[in-house]
Write a structure and sequence with these properties.
It is found in: Endoplasmic reticulum membrane. InterPro entries: ER_stress-assoc. This protein is mainly α. The chain is built from 2 helices and no strands. It has one domain. The chain is elongated, with a radius of gyration of 30 Å. The protein starts with a helix and ends with a helix. The model has no long low-confidence stretch (mean pLDDT 82).
Length: 68
């Protein structure tokens, strides 16, 4: 057997071994909880700012007489 054939057989064996491991994810690495990346206070503040600014814009547009 030539050297290149031996290397090719070794690569094929390594690849085949890897294929049999696919999908075998340990249970500990899978996230179970639904944690939000931001806290409830930051989320509430963001909602307050967005809704408040939109209401302020609506009131300002209504008092100035429409789109002009």
């Amino acid at each position: 057997m030539t050297t290149s054939r031996r290397l090719a057989d070794r690569k094929v064996a390594k690849f085949q071994k890897n294929i049999t491991k696919r999908g075998a994810v340990p249970e500990t690495s899978v996230k179970k909880g639904y944690d939000y990346p931001v806290g409830p206070i930051v989320l509430g503040f963001f909602v307050f700012v967005v809704i408040g600014s939109s209401l302020f814009q609506i009131i300002r547009t209504a008092t100035s007489g429409g789109m002009a």
